[in-house]
Design goal:
The structure holds two protein chains of two kinds. By secondary structure, chain A is of the alpha+beta class. Chain A has helices spanning about 40-45, 55, 65-80, 85-115, 130-135, 140-160, 180-210, 210-220, 265, 305-310, 315-330, 340-360, 410-415, 415-430, 440-450, and strands at about 1-5, 15-20, 30-35, 170, 170-175, 225-230, 245-250, 255-260, 265-270, 280, 300, 380-385, 390-395, 405-410, 470-475, 480-485. Chain A is about 40% helix and about 15% strand. In chain A, the strands form five sheets. In chain A, strands 3-2-1-15-16 form a five-stranded antiparallel beta sheet, covered by helices on one side. A four-stranded mixed beta sheet of chain A has the order 8-7-6-11, covered by helices on one side. Residues about 10-15 and about 455-470 of chain A have low confidence and may be disordered. The radius of gyration of chain B is 22 Å and the shape is globular. Classes of the chains: A alpha+beta, B alpha/beta. At the A-B interface, strand 3, helix 1, helix 6, strand 9 and strand 14 of A face helix 1, helix 6, helix 8 and helix 11 of B.
Chain lengths: ~475, ~325
């Protein structure tokens, strides 16, 4: 049996590795996506002060520390039985919306964009953000950089630091906005809305109007029929910061909608001996292995999942974009993994519109941003939607608010099973006996996992816009017959 | 003039150091002019084997972030040391162990038990835990060995310079990169920051007399925005932490947690912080002192938040 190794494909909690096994006929027998690292936050959180968790757990991921910071802060509200004042909640959501704008922008233009804008088989040297800028024009390129910088400025303004913010506390936030800052946020928000609209147009022009790309998006190689998870507000519209978790089945029907405190009834994690990452699944359906369908507990937790799990968007322009998304792709749910990129842009528009709404909220400059908790702390669960999926923090403390147990189900981890399945299916569809394995073909396999917005790929693949990988093909004697670097 | 050959690597870390490196903004173009990046697994396609094939000392500078938590990270640290003329520990994890270093309060067994067996959402009746080598039906799969103890980079290989911070602020990163580009590196062993004094020196809050009758936790009080946080009873690590960051956390009304490491000349940041805290306790009555100290509930996580592996304590004893 031949073995193909793709190592490293970079970050999850560390680096990623893909092993592809070919049978004697040269077809893909199986593939494994491995996470070769663990740090053990669930253990060393024990003994820490509960209020330190927003700052400790964000060190799980320096790409989306804002998501851990918010999930932890919300879990602390629950641990300390405190309801933050309305302006504090709005400030948190404003901060979080700004984070979404930067993060989704990074992913679309820098990580995923090159595949579509330049083409999946474009020369490696061009398939990167610089190539994208050359093709879409300096003006849009400049807008990408500006949007990221300005929204990072908002994160810094409120959070205290651009990476690893500090402002989350049980009962509120440590820092508010003054009128001058608010005006600045409002202007950035306006620009972000325009930028998001432009981004949807770019997607329309480059992907939807290109028959070949559209066929690729809709192809079976990139399709899986799974359950979908996403957080929704009281009207079942997408919400990133707060709400209930809704799961729809592969037919798009509501399977369950639960409050964060009930997550243990609905989500469980499976352990495999060949990877350090645990594999979440729907508890009431059960773990049936790495397979699609209604009988398999595998679910996906991505921008596409959030759109599938909701009935719409809470802002007007994003709602229009949502409707166009489903009318173009033939109704709900959409199972095509590559459509996740489009869904991400619908969310980008929602985040920008929400940022604008909040920046104009009369309460947003209120100094009433904290309540001092007085109840005895015990246990709390906080859930937010991280850009890369549902993120759950669950803490149990003693009566002094010292962490006794911590359980974390981290965004990208939710997609551990579907990523494995997507890689296998793409590899099986693309690697055929006698067909030469080219760099472009490998990139098409990478394109199977890129829509999940690999946190292990993070903003740091920035320059070339793709993960470094290497495929080594061994013959049945273990000798290397081919080695391809991409 | 030939370009500076630069390698960047991450070990047990969160990716925040990579983001921090990008935060230098348009100065990245200056860097691109002056330096050629020969290894950066997150961004360029050179592979482990390419580094292995490089002659010894052929890389001018390696910026290494992340702690040493497993066998692959140790291997890469040693290999990059051999290939690099200058080895720089970038960020708190590489230089002191960082927050993942708090795992030294436990060991592999207790961590695996918690993560793979006990966590409330885990369903693992067969008690499966990850194996370094495992045979799947199609062949053998391997993952690196997870160590009992987190090590700093300097505990693994010789380190020439340190750039502190979790993550380093953009100004600190650029200070170091500019020195590299211009070939004006300070004496070997230097911790590169704008300020070798404490964070207090950067902090705009007003300082007067520090006399503490009670320590408060961050959620217990809304601090005055102008006055020193330690004087208000919050355990701010600024007094025992190297400056140069600009004191962003106290300016967001939250105490410094110590991420820039010890000030010059101090071996153990936590002990230094602890002695500073002890000296502001406003009492001579042993029972009152005990009571005040009892308000510090997580001494290790407070005093050694980023520095446990690098401290004199290094790790907890596990029976």
């Amino acid at each position: 049996m031949k073995k193909i190794t793709i190592d490293p494909i970079t970050r999850l909690e560390g680096h990623g590795k893909i092993e592809i096994f070919l049978n004697d006929a040269g077809e893909v027998e199986n593939s494994y996506f491995q996470v070769p690292e663990l740090r053990g936050f669930e253990k060393f959180s024990e003994g820490r002060l509960a209020e330190d968790m927003p700052q400790i757990t964000q060190r799980i991921c320096g790409v989306c520390p804002e998501a851990h910071h918010m999930a932890a802060t919300k879990a602390l509200d629950a641990v300390f039985h405190v309801d933050p004042p309305s302006p504090a909640k709005k400030l948190r959501e404003l901060f979080y919306s700004s984070f979404y704008v930067t993060d989704h922008t990074t992913h679309f233009y820098i990580l995923a964009g090159p595949d579509f804008v330049m083409g999946p088989e474009a020369p490696v040297a061009e398939r990167n953000i610089l190539g994208v800028i050359a093709k879409v024009g300096l003006e849009l390129g400049g807008a990408v950089i500006n949007t990221r910088m300005k929204n990072h400025h908002i994160i810094h303004m409120l959070g205290g630091r651009a990476v690893h913010p500090v402002f989350g506390l049980p009962g509120g936030v440590s820092k508010g906005l003054n009128e001058e800052e608010r005006k600045e946020v409002e202007q950035i928000a306006r620009d972000s809305v325009e930028f998001a609209k432009l981004s949807l147009k770019v997607f329309d022009d480059i992907v939807l109007k290109n028959k070949e790309y559209l066929e690729m998006v809709l192809s079976d190689a990139y399709t899986h029929h799974t359950y979908y998870m996403g957080m929704v507000d009281e009207k079942n519209r997408v919400n990133f910061y707060d709400g209930k978790v809704r799961v729809v089945d592969p037919d798009g029907k509501e399977f369950v909608k639960y409050a964060p405190r009930d997550y243990l009834e609905h989500v469980a994690e499976h352990v495999e001996p060949w990877t350090y990452v645990k594999i979440p699944y729907l508890k009431k359906v059960g773990w049936k292995g790495f397979v699609d369908g209604k009988d398999s507990g595998v679910f996906r937790s991505t921008p596409l999942s959030r759109l599938n799990a909701a009935d719409g968007m809470a802002t007007p322009l994003a709602q229009e974009a949502y409707e166009q998304f489903y009318s173009t792709l033939g109704g709900k749910p959409v199972h095509q993994t590559l459509a996740t990129h489009w869904a991400r842009l619908v969310e980008l528009l929602y985040a920008a519109e929400r940022l604008l709404e909040l920046s104009q909220d009369p309460e947003i400059t209120s100094p009433d941003i904290r309540v001092i908790p007085t109840a005895t702390p015990d246990e709390g669960i906080g859930i937010v939607e991280a850009p890369r999926g549902n993120l759950t923090h669950h803490y149990i403390t003693d009566e002094k608010g010292i962490i006794r147990k911590a359980n974390l189900i981290v965004a990208t981890v939710n997609n551990a099973a579907p990523i494995n399945m997507s890689i296998k299916k793409a590899a099986q569809s693309l690697i055929k006996p006698g067909k030469k394995i080219t760099e472009g073909l490998l990139n098409r396999i990478e394109m199977a996992w890129r829509p999940y917005d690999p946190c292990w790929g993070c903003a740091t693949h920035t320059l070339p816009g793709r993960a470094p990988m290497e495929i080594i093909i061994y013959n049945s004697k273990g000798e290397i017959v081919e080695r391809i670097s991409s | 003039m030939s370009k500076l050959k630069l390698a960047l690597y991450w070990a047990a870390s969160c990716g925040g150091c990579e983001i921090a490196q990008l935060m230098i903004g348009d100065k990245i173009l200056k860097l691109a002019e002056a330096a050629e990046i020969v290894f950066w697994p997150v961004a360029i396609d050179a592979k482990y084997k390419d580094v292995e094939a490089m002659p010894d000392k052929s890389i001018d500078v390696c910026l290494f972030n992340g702690a040493i938590r497993n066998s692959e990270q140790e291997h890469l640290a040693k290999m990059l040391r051999e290939k690099s003329r200058v080895m720089i520990a970038y960020g708190a994890c590489a230089s002191e162990g960082g927050i993942p270093g708090l795992a030294n309060l436990f060991n592999r067994q207790t961590i695996f038990d918690r993560v793979y067996l006990e966590t409330q959402s885990t369903d693992n009746k067969e008690k499966v835990v990850p194996q370094i080598k495992y045979n799947v039906p199609e062949g053998e799969l391997t993952v690196p060995e997870f160590y009992d103890t987190v090590m700093t980079l300097a505990q693994t290989v010789d380190v020439d310079y340190t750039i502190p911070g979790c993550p380093p602020e953009a100004r600190t990163t650029w200070l170091a990169l500019e020195a590299l580009i211009e070939g004006k590196l300070p004496p070997r062993g230097t911790v590169i920051t704008h300020n070798a004094k404490a964070v207090c020196d950067d902090c705009p809050r007003k300082r007067d007399v520090k006399k503490i009758k009670k320590f408060y936790r961050t959620f217990e009080i809304i601090p005055d925005p102008e006055i020193c946080l330690l004087e208000q009873g919050l355990l701010c690590a600024g007094i025992a932490t190297r400056g140069g960051c600009g004191a962003p956390c106290p300016q967001a009304n939250m105490p410094c947690t110590g991420c820039y490491g010890p000030v010059d000349g101090v071996i153990d940041q936590g002990a230094h912080f602890l002695s500073g805290v002890a000296s502001v306790i406003d009492s001579n009555d042993p029972s009152e002192i005990d009571k005040i100290i009892a308000g510090i509930h997580d001494p290790v996580g407070t005093f050694y938040r980023y520095s446990l592996p690098d401290s004199l304590l290094r790790r907890a004893r596990i029976k």
